[in-house]
Design brief:
The chain has about 350 residues and is an all-beta fold. It has no helices and 26 strands.
Length: about 350
């Protein structure tokens, strides 16, 4: 878990807690809540620059990155939350710019973003059906997987000649590879960056739920939408499957964590596996190893406490509108703060200290 030091000095919103929760003050970390505000072409305060339908969030030791799907861009914010600027993309959709500077490259509805230990940024360029890399030192863009055409092809061959269908999420495996949620192909795929090879590690292309405890290799995956990773596990959100699963990185077994597979918004205070979701689209792991789940079509943020074996809806306290991404910032005192992209309100919210 990366550590990010925060100076929280942003516009605040008073949020009313739910029963058994204390009243908390959440913060508008970035975004103006309007689409007609100026974008951050030059450094500006994060709450003064427009984030047009913000989706992905990535935290690094020295920055926070956001992706926006309505202007096809990546934004970089300093860790103190005092300055934000466009980092990649021109503001218009396209698929250009490989081999050149990120600010002149075109993306098409980039969703989730991830950074490696050297600060290189990887982008799920979703509607270009590929994964692209932005070099930290030169800001040069390259494609590391996908041809730019939708489809399913290329397993056991060069990743740059393989075909994906709207890959929404990626995570780095820490060993020179990337897992890709190949959403519309109902598959989880792995890209070996060192050898430019791609393979399917889970999913058979059929839109149905896996069986609890089965081998990932033989499992079906119904709309893999979002990924998180730690030393032991890969955490997988199934969008159409309305559920969250854990993949053991050693045994390769997939087990149910939360959700029955049915649509709804029930189950708070009880076993997470008996809860219902409606189109979940984001996930993050906090410093305790518990889960933050973005329950998008319920306009809610859910929290799985493994020690208590319960799920709760977090008291955000005001209406969110189709939130998508989440990340956890852990400060110098080991205290977590949750970031959530309140997508169609065009802003990022941050929680008060959580532990």
């Amino acid at each position: 878990m990366r550590t990010t030091y925060l100076l929280i000095a942003f516009q605040t919103v008073l949020l009313v807690g739910q029963p058994n929760h204390a009243t908390a003050k959440w913060t508008i970390f970035a975004g103006t809540e309007k689409t007609d505000s100026p974008s951050a072409e030059r450094p500006t305060h994060p709450t003064a620059g427009a984030l047009r339908n913000v989706y992905g969030i990535e935290v690094t030791p020295d920055a926070i990155f956001f992706s926006t799907v309505d202007d096809h861009s990546i934004w970089k914010c300093d860790r103190e939350g005092t300055s934000m600027i466009r980092y990649a993309g021109t503001g218009t959709a396209g698929h250009t710019g490989d081999g050149g500077p990120a600010l002149k490259a075109q993306f098409n509805k980039p969703h989730e973003i991830r950074a490696d230990d050297d600060g290189n940024l990887f982008v799920a360029d979703t509607f270009n059906h590929c994964v692209r890399r932005i070099d930290a030192a030169t800001q040069t863009v390259t494609t590391v997987a996908g041809t730019g055409q939708s489809g399913f092809a290329g397993d056991d061959g060069p990743a740059t000649k393989a075909m994906f269908d709207q890959p929404h999420s990626i995570v780095l495996d820490g060993m020179g590879g990337i897992y890709v949620a190949d959403t519309r192909n109902h598959r989880l795929r792995h890209v070996d960056l060192n050898h430019n090879l791609v393979r399917t590690v889970g999913g058979d292309g059929r839109g149905r739920l896996p069986e609890d405890g089965q081998s990932l290799k033989s499992a079906s995956l119904f709309g893999p939408r979002s990924l998180a990773i730690d030393g032991d596990s890969i955490w997988l959100v199934l969008r159409e499957g309305n559920s969250v699963w854990k993949i053991d990185r050693e045994s390769d077994r997939i087990t149910l964590v939360a959700g029955t597979g049915k649509q709804g918004h029930e189950g708070d205070g009880a076993d997470p596996r008996l809860a219902t979701f409606r189109g979940p689209k984001g996930i993050a792991v906090d410093s305790r190893g518990d889960l933050v789940i973005v329950d998008t079509e319920n306009h809610a943020l859910r929290y799985v406490d493994f020690a208590a074996n319960t799920i709760q809806t977090l008291p955000v306290g005001h209406p969110m509108k189709r939130p998508h991404g989440a990340a956890v910032l852990t400060d110098s005192k080991g205290i977590d703060h949750i970031l959530v992209s309140d997508s169609e309100n065009h802003r990022v919210l941050i929680s008060p200290p959580r532990n």
